[in-house]
Design brief:
Elements: E1 3-9, H1 17-31, E2 37-39, H2 52-55, E3 57-58, H3 62-74, E4 77-86, E5 89-97, E6 103-107, H4 117-120, E7 130-132, E8 135-141, H5 148-151, E9 160-164, H6 172-186, E10 189-193, E11 196-198, E12 204-206, E13 210-212, E14 218-221, E15 227-233, H7 235-244
Parallel strand pairs: 1-2, 2-4, 3-4, 8-9, 9-10
Antiparallel strand pairs: 1-15, 4-5, 5-6, 7-8, 10-13, 11-12, 13-14
Length: about 260
């Protein structure tokens, strides 16, 4: 079964969750996509902020409720990351929210030390694999992209690798290159969703959101413009390619922990 994926590349209101939720609702309503999966950027309610003590929501907070409403409205999974607090800790947490209101979560494993993210947030310890319409999907967050072992597709464990990000323009070449590399080495589709504009720390973002075929070519490559884009991914193409070029059978075995 094919999978329709919708990505939202946009500017973000700095540290204003309510304004961002309203903005995303408007963009999704205007685009009215027929889709299976809606992907929002990293920390889509605040921008990439270290002000977790003031801004982090409880695990069952207003943004999760908003995602449940949007998932139900569009009859699609909605995913993206937000800052969350719980048990005296803060997490950069990706929610995977289904139309029936149920959800899964993934806490960002690799925290961006150059912004001292590891001084504010607690790293996750477990990778998430979710199922959607016969597809296995591995959602990760931003800096995770730089670590191929964590992203590694062992035994064709997933069909789609997904990154939500606030990846600055200064390192856009790395972003574009690594997204292609992850698709090629893992024989999987890759979706990377980034923001545009300038954040409250004066860091500019060039977007460059992309959807990449397992062979490495782009099915979608965006510029710096805001936009809502939907691409249909073919499961049959993925299966045929893996059968014709089964490089995954020669992969080295390893254990993370």
């Amino acid at each position: 079964m094919d999978l329709r994926v919708t990505i939202v590349q946009t500017q973000l209101h700095w540290q204003d969750a309510g304004a961002n939720r309203t903005m995303f609702s408007g963009k999704l309503a205007a685009a009215a996509p027929q889709t299976d999966l809606i992907v929002l950027p990293e920390m889509f309610t605040t921008g990439f902020s270290m002000e977790a003590a003031a801004l982090a929501e409880e695990a069952e907070g207003p943004t999760l409720s908003w995602m449940q409403q949007e998932a139900r409205k569009h009859r699609a999974v909605v995913t993206g990351s937000v800052m969350v607090q719980g048990q005296g800790k803060f997490f950069n947490r990706l929610y995977w929210v289904r139309p029936d209101g149920s959800h899964a979560l993934y806490d960002k494993r690799h925290l961006f030390r150059m912004a001292k993210e590891h001084h504010t947030y607690t790293a996750g310890t477990e990778r998430l694999i979710v199922e959607l319409n016969g597809w296995s999907i591995c959602p990760l967050v931003c800096y995770d992209l730089r670590f191929p072992v964590w992203s590694r597709n062992t035994g064709s464990g997933y069909d789609l690798l997904l990154y939500v990000a606030n990846w600055p323009q200064a390192r856009s070449l790395a972003w574009r290159t690594l997204l292609q590399a992850r698709a090629i080495e893992n024989l999987a589709y890759v979706v990377g969703v980034n923001r545009v504009g300038t954040d409250g720390n004066n860091h500019p973002y060039s977007g460059d959101s992309a959807i990449i075929h397992p062979k490495g070519h782009h099915l979608l490559e965006t510029s710096q413009a805001e936009g809502v884009h939907t691409v249909t991914l073919s499961k049959q193409e993925l299966t045929d390619f893996r059968e014709a070029f089964p490089a995954h059978r020669d992969a080295d075995g390893f254990q993370l922990f």
